[in-house]
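Q: What residues go here?
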């Protein structure tokens, strides 16, 4: 996947891209982002990583912000661990 993105960037340096990939390919800047940034370091400052993740904990996402934050940290790591710029955490009924 990173190879294809790098080829697109090489061919279209003025274009912007939206890359959709599974959480395992993007989370914690492992896999695709690190390989794209290695080939094109200047893209890191102009990129955002967004992760959507279903809540796996017994946390009522509508109640206590502290409980929700603990569940997020348990999944993605403590603040500053660079899991993503934006996290969308949702609960399935």
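A:
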């Amino acid at each position: 996947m990173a190879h294809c993105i790098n080829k697109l960037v090489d061919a279209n340096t003025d274009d912007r891209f939206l890359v959709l990939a599974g959480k395992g390919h993007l989370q914690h800047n492992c896999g695709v982002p690190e390989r794209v940034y290695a080939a094109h370091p200047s893209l890191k400052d102009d990129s955002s990583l967004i992760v959507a993740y279903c809540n796996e904990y017994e946390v009522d996402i509508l109640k206590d912000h502290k409980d929700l934050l603990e569940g997020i940290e348990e999944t993605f790591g403590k603040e500053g661990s660079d899991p993503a710029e934006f996290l969308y955490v949702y609960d399935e009924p």
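A: Context that may help when evaluating the design: Residues 18 and 47 are 10 Å apart (CA to CA). The beta strands are 50-54, 86-90.
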